[in-house]
Amino acid sequence: MGLLKNAVRCDHCNIVIESTHRHDFKSCLCDDEEKQIFVDGGLDYKRRLFGSKASWKDLSEYSRDDEDDNDL
Fold this sequence. Notes:
With 72 residues, this protein is mainly beta. The protein has one domain (3-65). It has 1 helix and 8 strands. Strands 3-2-7 form a 3-stranded antiparallel β-sheet, with no helix packed on it. The protein has a 3-stranded antiparallel β-sheet with strand order 4-5-6, with no helix packed on it. 15% of the residues are buried. The mean pLDDT is 92.
């Protein structure tokens, strides 16, 4: 599966953050570092960094491989 979208929504500040290219390090708007979530990697890799009280919903999207289509 290929990564089409690398994004999360922070459950604390309700902000959607998306990393669109390699080393595109983005963070939510939470002032409390323990609640912050960060995304990185664009479509090359999916990386998350987060505080001990962070909570988020992963909004990443993936493409299907041609091989997977044969399983339908």
